[in-house]
UniProtKB/TrEMBL annotation:
<dbReference type="Pfam" id="PF08281">
    <property type="entry name" value="Sigma70_r4_2"/>
</dbReference>
<dbReference type="GO" id="GO:0006352">
    <property type="term" value="P:DNA-templated transcription initiation"/>
</dbReference>
<feature type="domain" description="RNA polymerase sigma-70 region 2">
    <location>
        <begin position="16"/>
        <end position="80"/>
    </location>
</feature>
<dbReference type="InterPro" id="IPR013324">
    <property type="entry name" value="RNA_pol_sigma_r3/r4-like"/>
</dbReference>
<protein>
    <recommendedName>
        <fullName>RNA polymerase sigma factor</fullName>
    </recommendedName>
</protein>
<dbReference type="InterPro" id="IPR013249">
    <property type="entry name" value="RNA_pol_sigma70_r4_t2"/>
</dbReference>
<dbReference type="InterPro" id="IPR000838">
    <property type="entry name" value="RNA_pol_sigma70_ECF_CS"/>
</dbReference>
<comment type="similarity">
    <text>Belongs to the sigma-70 factor family. ECF subfamily.</text>
</comment>
<dbReference type="GO" id="GO:0003677">
    <property type="term" value="F:DNA binding"/>
</dbReference>
<dbReference type="GO" id="GO:0016987">
    <property type="term" value="F:sigma factor activity"/>
</dbReference>
<feature type="domain" description="RNA polymerase sigma factor 70 region 4 type 2">
    <location>
        <begin position="103"/>
        <end position="154"/>
    </location>
</feature>
<dbReference type="Pfam" id="PF04542">
    <property type="entry name" value="Sigma70_r2"/>
</dbReference>
<keyword id="KW-0238">DNA-binding</keyword>
<dbReference type="InterPro" id="IPR013325">
    <property type="entry name" value="RNA_pol_sigma_r2"/>
</dbReference>
<keyword id="KW-0804">Transcription</keyword>
<dbReference type="InterPro" id="IPR007627">
    <property type="entry name" value="RNA_pol_sigma70_r2"/>
</dbReference>
<dbReference type="InterPro" id="IPR014284">
    <property type="entry name" value="RNA_pol_sigma-70_dom"/>
</dbReference>
Length: 160
């Protein structure tokens, strides 16, 4: 496929599904600006590595993988940053609190990244098990096992 065609394909696809990718990034970082940065970084990565998109039919899972990996990279970098108490006290956004499904959000935050990724992609992004496996670069049976374990951990946390 020619470079201009791939550019256009990626551009059209990302624009059409931008809300899904923003929602996915937001589910990892819980911050509007960081989620937008992740989506933007993902687009840059996609454009610079478009040669890795061998089959255009797989653009969905290809770009989801880029967004997931970019989100996880961001979270790893954030763990290395030490925030002082003064920064914590002055970082209020001034927005009203939202309490819908707060228990679920807390339980999701407590899951390991590999379990949380599977739950988010399967239930919040409505991907099929096979697509989740493609996005995460895992075997389908591994995804099924981890999905079962993740749901079990969520169930235990929600009951507590």
């Amino acid at each position: 496929m020619r470079k201009n065609n791939v550019d256009k394909l990626i551009e059209d696809y990302v624009i059409k599904h931008q809300e899904n990718y923003y929602r996915l990034a937001y589910s990892y970082v819980k911050n509007e600006h960081d989620a937008l940065d992740i989506v933007q970084d993902s687009i840059v990565k996609a454009m610079s590595s478009q040669h890795s998109l061998i089959e255009p039919d797989y653009i969905k899972t290809w770009f989801y993988r880029i967004v997931v990996n970019t989100s996880l990279d961001y979270l790893r970098r954030q763990k290395k940053v030490i925030v002082s108490e003064e920064e914590i006290l002055t970082s209020g956004t001034g927005k009203p609190d939202q309490y819908e499904d707060i228990d679920l959000h807390k339980a999701m935050d407590n899951l390991p990244d590999n379990y949380r990724s599977i739950i988010v992609l399967r239930y919040f992004e409505d991907l099929k098990i096979e697509e989740v496996a493609d996005v995460l670069g895992q075997n389908v049976n591994t995804i099924k096992t981890r999905l079962y374990k993740a749901l079990e951990k969520l169930r235990i946390q929600m009951n507590d």
